[in-house]
């Protein structure tokens, strides 16, 4: 009998490697990968582009009715569009990094995106990564993983990925990662949480390939 493809929720703090690992694992298993962080980043980009103050919840909420997001899968990952404009690269800027957790704390933004995430997740064969996937977006996911690592390891990984290392120090990145963790964990709406049923993977002493292999093993063991 063919195996039942499942829904996998991957949550964890900033820079734990959720996106890159989930993307690789999804490709290997032929699953759909949905990066929900990219959706919060795209809304944040649109807010900044419109000249709206991220603290102005009313203006941010009003903007939502004018936004259409589209994720288009590519061979390696996906491109993300806001009202038809490809913002895939633009959503990784320092400006977006600095404002995204503030935008993600707004209830209307979360409702707007969670509805789209659930619709995209459909009937299974999906990996979603974010902060509230196991707790809010897909509470019935067959497998929940909490991927974490020490703040030092996470900041270092992020710094190694940064193209302009001269303009951003490791210390700056560490501060930005810690500030996002703080906001994401302590916000009122859908905070980052490790649900009791999640399997915790701490990648401090695991390589990329070892972490991906562990995730593949957990998924194949959960598929019926
Ligand atoms: O990849 P990285 O760890 O830098 O973060 P991300 O997944 O791109 O998410 C960026 C930000 O979006 C997070 O710091 C959260 O503030 C927010 N987010 C969220 O609130 N809920 C999600 N499901 C995903 C992201």
UniProtKB/TrEMBL annotation:
Which compartment or compartments is the protein found in?
Cytoplasm
Its recorded name reads: Cytidylate kinase
Q: Which GO terms describe its molecular function?
A: ATP binding; CMP kinase activity; dCMP kinase activity
Q: State the species of origin.
A: Veillonella seminalis ACS-216-V-Col6b
Class of enzymatic activity (EC top level) = transferase
Q: What is its main location?
A: cytoplasm
Question: Taking every annotated instance into account, which residue ranges of this chain make up the domain Cytidylate kinase?
Answer: 8-220
Q: Which gene encodes it?
A: cmk
Under InterPro entries, the record lists:
Cytidylate_kin, Cytidylate_kinase_dom, P-loop_NTPase
Enzyme Commission number, as recorded: 2.7.4.25
The Gene Ontology biological process terms listed for this entry are: nucleobase-containing small molecule interconversion; pyrimidine nucleotide metabolic process
Q: What reaction gets catalysed by this protein?
A: CMP + ATP = CDP + ADP; dCMP + ATP = dCDP + ADP
Recorded GO CC terms? cytosol
- Keywords recorded for this protein, A-Z: ATP-binding, Cytoplasm, Kinase, Nucleotide-binding, Transferase
Q: Where does ATP bind?
A: 12-20
List, alphabetically, the SUPFAM superfamilies matched. P-loop containing nucleoside triphosphate hydrolases
Gene3D superfamilies, from UniProt? P-loop containing nucleotide triphosphate hydrolases
Q: Which family does it belong to?
A: Belongs to the cytidylate kinase family. Type 1 subfamily.
């Amino acid at each position: 009998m063919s195996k039942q493809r499942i829904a996998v929720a991957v949550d964890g703090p900033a820079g734990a490697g959720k996106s890159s690992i989930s993307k690789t694992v999804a490709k290997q298993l032929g699953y759909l990968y949905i990066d929900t962080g990219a959706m919060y980043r795209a809304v944040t980009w649109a807010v900044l582009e419109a000249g709206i103050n991220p603290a102005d919840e009313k203006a941010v909420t009003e903007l939502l009715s004018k936004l259409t997001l589209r994720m288009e899968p590519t061979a390696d990952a996906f491109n993300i569009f806001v009202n038809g404009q490809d913002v895939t690269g633009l959503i990784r800027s320092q400006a977006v990094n600095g404002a995204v957790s503030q935008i993600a704390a707004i209830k209307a933004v979360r409702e707007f995106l969670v509805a789209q995430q659930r619709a995209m997740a459909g009937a299974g064969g999906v990996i979603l990564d974010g902060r509230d996937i196991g707790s809010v977006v897909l509470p019935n996911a067959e497998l929940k993983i909490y991927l974490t690592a020490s703040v030092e390891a996470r900041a270092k990984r992020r710094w190694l990925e940064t193209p302009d290392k001269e303009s951003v120090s490791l210390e700056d990145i560490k501060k930005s990662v810690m500030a996002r963790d703080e906001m994401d964990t302590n916000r009122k709406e859908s905070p980052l949480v490790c649900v009791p049923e999640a399997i915790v993977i701490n990648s401090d002493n695991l390589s990329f390939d070892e972490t991906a292999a562990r995730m593949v093993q957990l998924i194949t063991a959960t598929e019926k």
